[in-house]
Structures are given as structure tokens and as C-alpha cells.
Amino acid sequence: MDVLGIDEIIYGADDLPTCRQFFLDWGMQLALESAAELVFESQNGCRVIVRDSADPGLPPAIEAGPTLREVVWGVSSAAVLDKFASRIAALPGYVNDGKRVGCTDPNGLAVRFQVSVKRDVEVECARMNTWNEKNRINQRSPIYERAAPIEVGHVVFFVKDVKACERFYCDNFGFVPSDRYPERGAFLRCADVGGHHDIFLLQPPEARAGLNHVAFTVRDIHEVFGGGMHMSRLGWETQLGPGRHPISSAYFWYFKNPAGGLIEYYADEDQLDAHWEPRDFEPGPTVFAEWAIDGGIDGNTRRQKNAQGPSGKFLTDRAPAGK
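RE: above sequence
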């Protein structure tokens, strides 16, 4: 494979102290810190960088306010960088400093490629028991008190021209369509073999550019729940979740991100290969989510937000007859 996934994302934000606390609570490790820049790492070394929005070294923003300024994709070798450089040398915003090559995509976003610096990691994941396969014997499923994201799994943008953006990523860098909203959206993965999507391009009716969300891969559904409840306990606001996407099969939980857009924990997405045939879907609430909890789960009561907390009784308790 040429492109291996996302290596780094860079935000331009207005409130670095709040962003610092948010990403620490999210489960990222603070690798570097200065008055103008925060650098976080996931378990496999994927980087999240937050800089002041006024930093002149940042690429131009695709929308007003805090947002994602740059996406750096990891590739398998220097030969791939050279190949990409020859393809995009004439495109707007072309850069090549010997370590990274890139340009500006049709939506105005700075896109870069480097030889991947992410490392392989081993994590212990929950085993699932189904009717046919009993993979967990004499072992309880885990309960996580918080999340430790493995990597940045995908990015989602509002775009002005979904067809132009799809051609840009597929023709220049070998991305592959997984599924589509005809004329409205394109789910793309980096290569034939991989997770359902690494980038999703969504053209809203008003055809604007902007960040929708950045998604962080966690090990299993239990970590989606544990991470989300941890963020809820700390007062961070849920946008939607937990829930499950029917298109990718992934479990999700979305929060509002002070660095821009939304941010997502997700796990258990479909894995595809060259035999997969893209499908067309009409956008709608039940297409986006098979099920979802509006407002999230309160991390203390373990119930839906604003619902009555547990009383300590069994749910099967019944009042005596005549009471």
C-alpha cells in the first residue's frame, strides 16, 4: 500500500489552555508544549498538533474560527513520496521540503504526505461471544474508566465539490471509494485493503468548506463507552452518542471539540478489500445511525443525561401486591 493512514493533524485554535485540557482528558499524551503550540501523541505515535489560529506558519483556514488546518498522511516509502511529487507538482500550493510533499486540495485544505513515523502497537481487546463463536471463556469483558486512543482513524469535511475532491484523492494518491451518497458524499479509504473510510467528503446543500469531525480509533466498543463516560464526567459536551453507524458498522460517540468541529471515539468498523463493491445511500437519520443516544450518557449515573439515577434496586424489583 502507498498511503498507510493519517500520521498527523494540525489545528488552528483560539484557546490553547482549554484545548490542552481537552486532549489530555481525551486520552492523548502531551509530547511537547510551548506558549504557541501543543503536540499530543496517540498510542501508535500519531500526532495531534494545536497551534494558535493567528500563527502565520499555519496554512490558510478553510472556514472561520477554530478548525483543522492540515492533514499529514503517512506513506510506505520515500519512493512513494517521489511518485506523488511528480503527480502533484503542478497543483496549487505544491510544497516539497525533502521530507514532506503536498499541495492544496480542491476544498482549500493543506494536504501533506511523509514516510510514516507511526509505530506498531499491541493492545489487548475485548473478545466477543456470539451464538456461533464463543471467543471469551471464563473471562469477563473489560470495563474502561477512560480511553487511550490508538490513532487518528479518519477525518470528515464539508466540501464545495464532492466529485472534484474524490477525483483529487483517488487519481493522485490511490484512494478507493467505499460507499457514496450520490452527488452528496464519498467515503474513501487509503487502499483496497483497510477500514471502511479514512476520509469522508460531504457536500451539504449550501456547498461550503469546513471541518465536520476527526475520529479516533479505540480498541473496542467498551472503550467507546468508557471514554465517552469519562469525558461526560469531566463536563465535556456530547454532540451525539453513543450509537452505531449502519454504513460502516462502527460504534461511535461524538463530542464538541474546542479545537474545532466535532471529535469521535469509534471502534469495530467494517474491514474491506478489493472485492468490496461501493454502495449508494440516500442521506437520512436512520442511514447515519442505526441507534444513538441524544445528549450522551452521564458518566456518574451511567444513565442517559438528565434521566433518573439508579436507586440500588434490581430492575426486576416489584412493589408488593396492593401497594
